[in-house]
User: Fold this.
Amino acid sequence: MAQLGSNTFTASVVDTADHTATTTFHVTVVHTNQVPQLAL
Assistant:
């Protein structure tokens, strides 16, 4: 089942020096069964 509406994702990475970077981004699904499009 599709997750319509706004969805929030958080991505974190850690390097070999134990430095961490984290970012959060939002994806809004407005239609199902259509080719995805990226809007910046």
About this structure: The two ends are 26 Å apart (CA to CA). The mean pLDDT is 85.
